[in-house]
Amino acid sequence: xxxxxxxxxxxxxxxxxxxxxxxxxxxxxxxxxxxxxxxxxxxxxxxxxxxxxxxxxxxxxxxxxxxxxxxxxxxxxxxxxxxxxxxxxxxxxxxxxxxxxxxxxxxxxxxxxxxxxxxxxxxxxxxxxxxxxxxxxxxxxxxxxxxxxxxxxxxxxxxxxxxxxxxxxxxxxxxxxxxxxxxxxxxxxxxxxxxxxxxxxxxxxxxxxxxxxxxxxxxxxxxxxxxxxxxxxxxxxxxxxxxxxxxxxxxxxxxxxxxxxxxxxxxxxxxxxxxxxxxxxxxxxxxxxxxxxxxxxxxxxxxxxxxxxxxxxxxxxxxxxxxxxxxxxxxxxxxxxxxxxxxxxxxxxxxxxxxxxxxxxxxxxxxxxxxxxxxxxxxxxxxxxxxxxxxxxxxxxxxxxxxxxxxxxxxxxxxxxxxxxxxxxxxxxxxxxxxxxxxxxxxxxxxxxxxxxxxxxxxxxx
Length: 462
Known about the structure:
Blueprint: H1 3-25, H2 27-40, E1 50-56, H3 59-65, H4 68-75, E2 78-84, H5 86-98, E3 106-109, H6 111-117, H7 127-130, H8 147-152, E4 154-158, E5 161-164, E6 169-170, E7 173-185, H9 186-191, H10 200-213, E8 218-221, H11 234-241, E9 247-250, E10 253-256, H12 261-277, H13 287-296, E11 299-305, H14 307-311, E12 323-326, E13 341-348, H15 355-365, H16 368-376, H17 386-389, H18 392-398, H19 406-414, H20 427-442, H21 447-460
């Protein structure tokens, strides 16, 4: 086990223990909620059932896992979590669902992987469960989820492709979400009198200054693994501000914009920035390394999911009070930044043989009280429910001094945050290819010819 991953696991266990204590504060409220809910539906209608819930190893998983005893007491349903590191989880998820294995009943999923899995019948549409008064409590309040999140997880399938819009199925329920931001060690930038960069060229210059002042500090943490997860954070957010489009309609047909002049301009700036800023381990760095670097102070800045900075800023941690937030980088000639959005969601395996029990778990895990519990305990940082963002307890907690400008920056970024990818089947394969091409360019391959080859590879698979 690598040092960064070991630190993460140790920290996750420590925080999970703290969450159990925090959850106790809400036991009375949760019990009242559960009692009221029990009058509307029979929460024990699948008593004695055992289900398996699979998820990425993540603070968001910790938030639910810490409260599982409440669910099991309420329903009599036994839940076995299976949690895996990020890169291996997505591979396992694809194998489990596409082979129609019933081993996993509930899975953590994002919108983009769901685009690839839904058309093949791997995901169970959730409309009939949401609309069944015997299965869904009247207090669940599906409309409490932010409209943009509900909309993103609702689509039709037309000719094997994704067709967003009205009249579609609900394929997953929002569990948490993130927008992409720049977060930084305020203590390091202040020490060396470095202004917060706003563009890739500014970041490259700041990195050179930092390396000259303290070679032991990695100026910028970013994901670089050969997997789509390294594209959906910093690259696609910044690329959108350059005018890059992953796909667009041309002469009535879908085409890719990854070899466009805008894409070439973006990649030249981005690759130069990575060479001057990132760690030598860039090609192997995933979000675990980004988190560990910023929390330990070995990394000065990062462009990634905003919750990572918040999660490492809590009382008692070395980074407490030292991490601040800013919008993601933008093109030098752009008026505005762009920020991709990622929605952690819970979905049901279509091959599950315990769908009723699985739905009760999804419903409970995404309920108002469970989301609020997780939010105030510092794990479900960006709750998908508007009720949480109107809750005084959460807002008072998130605005504490050690979080610096987290709430303010979240609101600013969220105004422009949106899905940066075009909904389509084949997302994963195309974005994996983009991640591979990024590594090649960082390693010295010509930007224009590499992007040309990438675009032709994607067109061949369309």
